[in-house]
């Protein structure tokens, strides 16, 4: 009788153990927020991450991508807060959109800090990049890897722009960051803050004269179709993307899955950066073929914009952190 009881207990314990193993191996799904869809490199970065995670976990882990800021009702500046609160599990987000909650991210919006992609890589891959990641993590979100939205160029419907004087009085749509307001005000423009969802209708009606965005956005969104006849390649700022996860979600993951997700994010980010940069010349030719006049600045013309925006540094370096700004400048100078 006793033997039968022990056998029954052993069977029960074995069954419970198997149940726990099955539960731990159960497929899990996490939400991933992005602002742009898979028509754009930004959205493709998120999809690539999901694809690599699905493949490397043998289907145990699914990242479901929600583009167009669906999870924050179209308000892209709420994405970081929603992820920190656990309303979003993960995201591939913009330094611009997250800067209201993480002031250090305004580093990348400082005008004319990064003249080329080598400068971008020197910052993100060095001490300054680690300082930015530390700032993000201190606010309840775990940064995993870098991607790239690219250099933001200036378009408008009125005239070719090759000096600050050309911007005088122009209504330029900018994103929801006070730093952008300050930059375009310093250049004599009339910056108008609005979401991307509202920008294209405003360009169509002439409520605003121009906008600034990476070439990929200008190309894919066909901004030339809403009267944007002039495009100035001024490389005034670069907008890195960041792959990240909610801290609580991250801490609940087994170490093996954390490493899988992190490495997949690194690989997806590198894939997207290389793809975006490789497509630059092709996109530019496509834009020119549609009748857009492209203005490329020489060193003297570019320096006139640099000089006109120095007041932005005086205002924003203390907000971002002088130590971080100095580390970024050192990285650029040493590249």
From TrEMBL:
Keywords: Signal. The lineage of its organism: Bacteria, Pseudomonadati, Pseudomonadota, Gammaproteobacteria, Oceanospirillales. This is DctP family TRAP transporter solute-binding subunit. It comes from the Bacteria. Residues 1-27 form the signal peptide. The keyword Signal applies. InterPro entries: DctP_fam (IPR018389), TRAP_DctP (IPR004682), TRAP_DctP_sf (IPR038404). PANTHER family: DICARBOXYLATE-BINDING PERIPLASMIC PROTEIN (PTHR33376:SF2), PTHR33376. It comes from Modicisalibacter luteus. The keyword Signal applies.
């Amino acid at each position: 009788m006793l033997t039968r009881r022990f056998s029954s207990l052993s069977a029960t314990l074995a069954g419970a153990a198997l149940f726990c193993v099955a539960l731990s191996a159960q497929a899990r799904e996490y939400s991933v927020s992005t602002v742009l869809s898979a028509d754009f490199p930004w959205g493709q970065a998120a999809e690539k991450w999901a694809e690599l995670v699905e493949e490397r976990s043998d289907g145990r882990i699914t990242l479901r991508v929600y583009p167009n800021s669906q999870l924050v009702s179209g308000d892209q500046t709420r994405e970081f807060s929603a992820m920190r609160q656990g309303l979003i599990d993960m995201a591939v987000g913009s330094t611009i959109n997250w800067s209201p909650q993480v002031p250090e991210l305004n580093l990348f919006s400082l005008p004319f800090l990064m003249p080329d992609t080598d400068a971008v890589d020197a910052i993100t891959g060095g001490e300054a990049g680690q300082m930015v990641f530390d700032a993000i993590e201190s606010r309840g979100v775990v940064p995993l890897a870098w991607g790239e939205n690219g250099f933001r160029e200036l378009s408008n419907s009125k005239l070719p722009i090759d000096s600050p004087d050309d911007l005088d009085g122009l209504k330029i749509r900018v994103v929801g960051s006070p730093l952008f307001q300050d930059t375009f005000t310093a250049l004599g423009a009339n910056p108008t803050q609005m979401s991307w969802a509202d920008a294209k209708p405003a360009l169509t009606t002439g409520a605003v004269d121009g906008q600034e965005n990476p070439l990929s956005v200008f190309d894919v969104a066909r901004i030339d179709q809403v009267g944007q006849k002039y495009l100035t390649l001024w490389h005034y700022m670069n907008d890195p993307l960041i792959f990240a996860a909610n801290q609580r979600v991250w801490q609940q993951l087994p170490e093996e899955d954390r490493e899988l997700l992190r490495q997949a994010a690194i690989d997806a980010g590198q894939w997207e950066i290389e793809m975006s940069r490789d497509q630059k010349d092709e996109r530019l030719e496509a834009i020119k073929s549609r009748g857009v006049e492209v203005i490329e600045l020489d060193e003297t013309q570019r320096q006139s914009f640099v000089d006109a925006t120095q007041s932005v540094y005086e205002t924003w370096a203390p907000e971002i952190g002088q130590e971080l700004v100095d580390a970024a400048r050192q990285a650029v100078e040493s590249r």
